[in-house]
Amino acid sequence: MNYRADSANFPVQLKIYSTLRTVFRILFFALFPVLVFSQGKKDIEEVFDRYFESIDQFSGNVLVAKKGQVLYSNSFGYANLELGVRNDIGTKFRIGSLTKQFTAMGIMVLVEQGKIGLHQSIASYLDSIPAHWESITVHQLLSHTSGLVHAWGSSEFKKCTALELTTDEVIALFWEVPLRTAPGKSFHYSGLGYFILARIIEKASGLSYAAFMADFIFEPLSMENTGMDRPRELITGRASGYLLEDKEIINADYLNMQLLKGGGNMYSTAHDLLLWDRALYERRLISEKGDSTLFQPVQKNYAYGWRVLDTPHGQLTKHNGSINGFFAQIFRLTDEQVLVIVLMNQTRPEHPRLGNQFFQIVKQHLLNEKNKH
């Protein structure tokens, strides 16, 4: 049976109201200031719901919290369209490059255990690397200043995304690729660097990457719904991924998530990411000094696994994660302790803009009056 967007099996209301939602969305943004300031905080859920309901065929989970208190949490669309299973609070989404912040934390845990040196050459932890990588440090991998290329920029890597390769085999694909710049010279985003960091965690800890993350991060924080997305494993509540192309929803291409270990292979839920957010404020995993290092920008507002910016509302730490059929965003205004999480099980041309626009709405609606002007 074919489940395409114009099929009778596809949720009819999503197609019928496509044009109406587009029109409503335009009107919503025009009238938003009036809606917010005339209705007040008691209608926060209605205001936020209207935004997402105005987006044609939006599918995902959204959470807004302040100082750990959930102010808004809702689910939209379907975890599996073909089976008619809707997203709910327990749906697990691939989080793509949000994985990097967990890898960075794992490195910092090992730094404080004395097992890794941030300014040590990566050759200290890996059995074999090409000569032109020997001057690269752990710090440079974390901050994307190593000069390594981005894995997704390689045609050879893209050819292998459905194959069964070990992390060492994935890394070896890039041995002959020249560095973009000398290590430490400039910022170049590199998922490859985080694949290498995952391997360093394994070498330094004596554990698999998955076991280390479970033992030292997920279990201590009670993040029971976060883990490694493995294609053969049965994962209760795991969402399927989709693409929205020309207003038609199709299945995302298969991707062996294990190839992205350390850089994009995790799944999580909105509630688990709230637990993560609170643990960062409480410094439950590393010391104050380690926390300061983790969030210290190096180049281009990038620290270790996080983008860190100074804004009129205080420090903003954030990151996006995009992977076949999924898009994730986390925003943390640390002075106000405002958290915004958007997890989508669809990719679409405008997906970064959707979360960014919602974050702007949240700021206008939640921040203290003194910070709104």
Distance between the termini: 55 Å
For the biggest β-sheet, the strand order reads 2-1-13-12-11-10
Got a strand count?
14
Structural class: alpha+beta
Major sheet description: 6 strands, antiparallel
Number of helices: 12
- Radius of gyration, taken over Cα atoms and rounded to an integer in Å: 21 Å
Sequence of secondary-structure elements:
HHHEEEEEHHHHHHEEEEHHEEEEEH
What's the average pLDDT?
A: 89
Percent helix, as a range, is 25-40%
Strand content: 15-25%
Q: Uncertain segments of ≥5 residues (pLDDT<50)?
A: 1-20, 26-41, 369-373
Shape: globular
Write the layout of secondary structure elements.
Layout: H1 12-16, H2 18-39, H3 44-53, E1 60-66, E2 69-76, E3 78-80, E4 85-86, E5 93-94, H4 99-112, H5 138-142, H6 155-159, H7 167-172, H8 191-205, H9 209-218, E6 227-228, E7 242-245, E8 248-251, E9 266-268, H10 270-282, H11 288-294, E10 307-311, E11 314-323, E12 326-333, E13 338-344, E14 346-347, H12 351-366
Parallel strand pairs: 7-14
Antiparallel strand pairs: 1-2, 1-13, 3-4, 5-9, 6-9, 7-8, 10-11, 11-12, 12-13
